[in-house]
TrEMBL record:
The keyword Nucleus does not apply. GO terms for cellular component: plasma membrane. This is 4Fe-4S ferredoxin-type domain-containing protein. It comes from Paraglaciecola arctica BSs20135. PROSITE patterns: 4FE4S_FER_1, 4FE4S_FER_2.
């Protein structure tokens, strides 16, 4: 214990930071995504516009005179068209999350990360921001040169206009998103008239900053370093999963060549179909080279497929050098669509979807809760009857106003004191205080179990009936 541990002086190693003036599409440099056209790009834009339009329009829709989709956290009530969900319906959210998870597993096993490339909000908003960049600052090469030169009036107004467009999109996105949790029509009016509450302004500005930072600055960092999906996706891949892949056998050896030289002559010289134009790297939003094989950064957006197909068409080569294919097909085999893993995911997905549908279909639009007044536990009336006081909480889970009648079952000789009918608005909770009195000679034990029954009035064909057990207490027996 008395021996000293020898200490060795180590000089600090100098850290080489990236050159800000060098833009080489490496993970530590900014990525200037090049525009691309093609079939997959059109499909991606269609899905992006569809889901973006749905996101923007849903909170504005009306149903039964109120906002169709409103997640009112303060009132602990979620309205989804004719369906109202309460904290008691937590199992429904669990089923929805389970179905979504297995749907993701199934799609990933079949077609890789197509969710990331075609439907993920991060990808959609990133491409929207890139679109503004291209319209204001020009192509990727022009953007590189613009960032490299010193600040002048032309650079100043382009950068200012670009960031103004980014902030505007982020603000509209944030207002729409917050509009799912508070009435959206009032939110827009109050926000732009500076009469919103503190928390409404806080959340709008918070999500504006998040959208602006994620889509404008972080971009591929969200996909490659923050999103956990990129890390565990490989556990769902197999040799028959369709992913974006480069055909090495056909493409190598790569190298430049002229258009006038035929493909056969190039093959005679040992050249493959890849002309090493590097377009597949320039159009990639995560800046990878797909020719290096499958990488976790790849989001399966298909931009490199469209870029390569365009080059192959100009060279009069067959398309598909880069394509959505499987490892089995690249090895010369045939992809097995119906395989145990995919069938297993499909069966579980169908089972969970069926259970979710059953849960929703069997869900009663009425719920009651009985609260027994315990201070005092009982009292004696002037007529010598023993009285217990209760509060019946009636929860109308439907979107329409309903009338209900209250009954007491399995309590012989009781007297009901209070209103036996209640009118409850859609999605509201109604508290009904009542008393039950009974002659003590009818009571044979300190605690007598009975039930309350609440039935809807007005529509006999669709009548709703709910029962709840309670106890009548008289400890002095």
């Amino acid at each position: 214990m008395s021996e000293r541990i020898p200490v060795k002086n180590i000089s600090p190693v100098k850290v080489h930071r990236p050159d800000k003036n060098k833009h080489d599409n490496t993970p530590r440099s900014r990525i200037y995504v090049r525009a691309v056209t093609g079939m997959l790009e059109n499909i991606r834009r269609f899905f992006g516009l569809f889901f973006l339009g749905s996101f923007a329009m849903l909170p504005w829709l009306q149903f039964n005179g109120s906002q169709a989709v409103l997640f009112d956290i303060g009132a602990q009530r979620f309205n989804i068209f004719g369906l109202t969900l309460w904290p008691q319906d937590l199992t429904l959210f669990a089923w929805i999350l389970i179905v979504a998870a297995f749907a993701l597993f199934f799609v990933t096993t079949f077609a890789g990360r197509v969710w990331c490339g075609f439907m993920c909000p991060q990808t959609t908003w990133t491409f929207i921001y890139i679109w503004f960049e291209e319209r204001i600052e020009g192509s990727n090469h022009k953007r590189m040169k613009l960032d490299q030169r010193k600040m002048d009036f032309d650079k100043f107004w382009r950068k200012t206009l670009k960031h103004f467009a980014w902030v505007s999109v982020a603000l509209l996105t944030s207002l729409t998103f917050v509009g799912y949790f508070t009435p959206i029509d009032n939110l827009f009016v109050e926000f732009f008239t500076f009469s919103s509450s503190f928390w409404a302004v806080f959340w709008v500005l918070f999500f504006t900053l998040c959208t602006y930072g994620n889509a404008g600055w972080m971009r591929e960092i969200m996909c490659t370093h923050i999103c956990p999906y990129a890390r565990f996706q490989s556990a769902m891949f197999d040799k028959d999963t369709f992913t974006v892949a480069y055909n090495t056998t056909r493409g190598e050896q790569r190298g430049p060549r002229g258009r006038k030289v035929s493909r056969e002559e190039n093959q005679t010289q040992g050249l493959g179909d890849c002309i090493d134009c590097n377009l597949c790297v320039q159009v990639c939003p995560t800046g990878i080279d797909i020719r290096n094989g499958l990488q976790y950064e790849c989001i399966n957006c298909g931009a490199c497929v469209d870029a390569c197909n365009g080059v192959m068409e100009k060279m009069n080569y067959p398309k598909g050098l880069i394509s959505f294919t499987s490892e089995t097909e690249l090895a010369g085999g045939k992809t097995k669509i119906f395989r145990p893993k995919l069938i297993g995911y499909a069966m579980v997905l169908l089972l969970m979807s069926g259970l979710l549908i059953f849960e929703i279909a069997s869900r009663k639009p009425l719920e009651i809760d009985i609260i027994k007044d315990r201070v005092p536990m009982f009292r004696e009336t002037g007529y010598g009857l023993i009285e217990n006081v209760f509060t019946i909480k009636i929860l109308n889970k439907s979107q329409l106003t309903q009338r209900y009648h209250i009954y007491v079952d399995n309590l012989e000789g009781h007297t009901y004191i209070g209103e036996d009918e209640a009118t409850v608005a859609g999605g509201e909770v109604f508290n009904l205080p009542i008393s039950i009195a009974i002659n003590p000679s009818k009571l044979t034990q300190e605690s007598t179990e009975f039930s309350f029954r609440v039935e809807s009035i007005g529509d006999e064909n669709n009548a709703v009936k709910v029962q709840a057990i309670s106890k009548f207490l008289y400890p002095d027996l």
